[in-house]
């Protein structure tokens, strides 16, 4: 038997009664904490050396979250026309220069449309310049560079290096320059994003060195975007990206290139810890030596454990102070064996109706959810 790790400083611990109530009423619910969201945005905005924080809204596009981040002075990084239109609808009057559009393998029409909007448009490879040079005549564009190495918590989220589909590789710089000149476009921004769930700040430092090194080739560049990817703690007690280290890497870069505008575009860092998934226990089952705790929602709400083997802490919110004495698999109601929210988890003796909390679910939770099995994913609440 062991006492559950001390969680008393977590926002959801402080508000546990309210959350248990929400879980009971809804069976399953994503809950986001406004104060935590605000705190994360303010922490990044305050970092010296960074001129712009563009929230990667693929992580979570809840309109209230977008409004809150807008009020904190963030911009928005969008990867599809629908994401751009969603931001514009949610934030009427938003300065178009606070939207960065970074599609990949999008159809021609999306570039035509994007360039008409007055937003920043990023080219992800040479095809648009080769096949549709007429679109870019006289236009200012960003180019996504493949720095040559991918980073991140899983192969599927490493977005640079020859095995990833993203970015213009360094060995294509000559050709890129030729195509840019031939089209009459101007490269005003350089962009890179090496992956997601990165903990070592060397990543952004070396990305910064690579991108600033390319500014000699593209003299119109005024902005360098180092991407997102900042990792957050997934296990209680684990350390996330150390912001002071991150800041000193960026400050050094800024000091060496004072005229360049420096942007970052994190998603996960801003929302992951501010969100939890609540799921009420539906059934208990023992089979052989394995105990199953079944809950009201599963991979239809949170696919990360099934897709990447990601770890999300699970606690029994109804019995937070009880001794954890049972090792269980927490599973959802979806008809796949991969529908597991957590394996071999130490929980207190659990009963039907208890509310479990699945932590760090604010990023890539609801955003990647589905109606698989025609089961609605958990509804969302801001508190
Ligand atoms: N910028 C670009 C161009 C991106 O592709 C991404 C994420 C981000 C920024 C934001 O990355 P973040 O700061 O959130 O790590 N579904 C996966 C993560 C995929 C991220 C895809 N791109 C997961 O649940 O771990």
TrEMBL record:
The modification N6-(pyridoxal phosphate)lysine is found at residue 58. The active site is at residue 335. Belongs to the Orn/Lys/Arg decarboxylase class-II family. This is aspartate kinase. It comes from Povalibacter uvarum. The lineage of its organism: Bacteria, Pseudomonadati, Pseudomonadota, Gammaproteobacteria, Steroidobacterales.
């Amino acid at each position: 038997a062991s006492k559950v790790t001390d969680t008393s400083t977590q926002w959801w611990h402080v508000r546990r009664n309210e959350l248990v109530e929400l879980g009971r009423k809804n069976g399953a619910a994503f809950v986001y904490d406004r104060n935590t969201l605000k705190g994360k945005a303010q922490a990044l905005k305050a970092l010296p050396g960074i001129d712009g924080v563009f929230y990667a809204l693929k992580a979570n596009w809840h309109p209230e979250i977008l409004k809150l981040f807008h009020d904190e002075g963030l911009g928005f990084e969008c990867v599809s026309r629908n994401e751009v239109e969603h931001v514009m609808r949610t934030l009427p009057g938003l300065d178009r220069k606070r939207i960065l559009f970074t599609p990949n393998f999008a159809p021609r029409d999306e570039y035509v449309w994007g360039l008409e909007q007055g937003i920043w448009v990023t080219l992800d490879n040479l095809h648009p310049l080769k096949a549709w040079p007429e679109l870019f005549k006289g236009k200012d564009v960003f180019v996504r560079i493949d720095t040559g190495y991918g980073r991140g918590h899983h192969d599927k989220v490493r977005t640079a290096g020859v095995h990833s589909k993203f970015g213009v590789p360094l060995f294509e710089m000559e050709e890129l320059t030729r195509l840019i000149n031939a089209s009459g476009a101007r490269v005003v921004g350089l962009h890179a994003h090496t992956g997601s769930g990165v903990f070592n700040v060397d990543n952004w430092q070396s990305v910064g060195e690579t991108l600033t090194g390319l500014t000699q080739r593209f003299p119109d560049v005024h902005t360098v975007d180092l991407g997102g990817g900042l990792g957050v703690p997934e296990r209680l007690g684990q350390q996330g990206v150390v912001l002071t280290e991150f800041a000193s890497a960026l400050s050094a870069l800024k000091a060496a290139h004072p005229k360049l505008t420096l942007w970052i575009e994190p998603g996960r860092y801003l929302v992951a810890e501010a969100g939890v998934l609540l799921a009420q226990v539906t059934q208990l089952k023992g089979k052989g030596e394995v105990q199953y705790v079944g809950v009201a929602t599963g991979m239809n709400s949170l696919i990360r454990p099934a897709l990447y083997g990601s770890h999300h802490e699970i606690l029994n919110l109804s019995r937070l102070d009880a001794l954890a004495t049972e090792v269980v698999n927490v599973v959802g109601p979806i008809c796949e064996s991969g529908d597991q929210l957590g394996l071999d988890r130490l929980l207190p003796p659990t009963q039907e109706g208890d509310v479990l909390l699945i932590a760090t679910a604010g990023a890539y939770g609801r955003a990647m959810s589905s109606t698989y099995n025609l089961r609605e994913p958990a509804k969302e609440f801001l508190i």
